[in-house]
């Protein structure tokens, strides 16, 4: 279970003071996420909401990438700040921009790098890496240079590198943004299969309202607050209404 207990995120920002350019800018706190109390116990939750509403910040709280300014976040009872490393072993995080997480020259080497701790034998590691790449239909890219891959291909490779270590929770920030129609459907099918067969729990943000409704539960974030939480179709309808796009 993922639990938010009064977790908030406040940042300090430099703001120009009324005195004009000759006075020093003042550091002013700005609340990005108001205190959140929430328990996510289902297998698949989606998060929707306007640009800048706080969705990515909410996700990064789950693996300790962002520290709550107050309150705490627990993943299966483990505190994301006090035991960050343990949490990150169980929580795989896929960024919107796959370039942020692919560090090796080829997809194969990248997935092998993920497996370095879990699989000591190098030929077994290579076989496992190929198998995970094949699961996402990108094994034919295994030996290519990562820099030559398209954005969507990189996205799938980044997901493979995260899945390779068999996380219990998978957090994805806008995973379909870069994908074409076929790869979007492949990813959706893959996520559903992972939930059904591996028992993986998924938390994702998306601006794709079809993808949002693949989940069992949807959260709507608006200006740093969760303003709706429940049945995906109902929450999506509320979001459309709020945005004036019905
Ligand atoms: N480290 C930070 N320092 C200052 N401001 C930040 C920081 N991280 C995020 N913000 C601000 O917090 C707000 C929420 O950002 P966040 O990335 O969570 O939004 P989002 O809902 O994911 O938006 P999008 O749909 O565009 O991805 C934005 O106004 C952003 O500029
Ligand atoms: Mg975001």
General description of the model:
The longest helix is centred in the C-terminal third of the chain and has 18 residues, at 181-198. Helix 3 (107-115) crosses helix 4 (122-135), helix 3 runs parallel beside helix 5 (151-163) and helix 4 (122-135) packs across helix 5. This protein has one domain: Rossmann fold. 39% of the residues are buried. It is built from eight helices and ten strands. The chain is of the alpha/beta class. The chain has helices at 55-62, 84-90, 107-115, 122-135, 151-163, 181-198, 209-212, 232-243; strands spanning 2-15, 26-40, 44-49, 70-75, 78-79, 91-94, 169-173, 201-205, 217-222, 225-230. The protein is globular and about 65 Å long. It binds adenosine-5'-triphosphate and magnesium ion. The site of magnesium ion has 4 residues, from helix 1. Pfam families: ABC_tran. GO terms for molecular function: ATP binding. This is Energy-coupling factor ABC transporter ATP-binding protein.
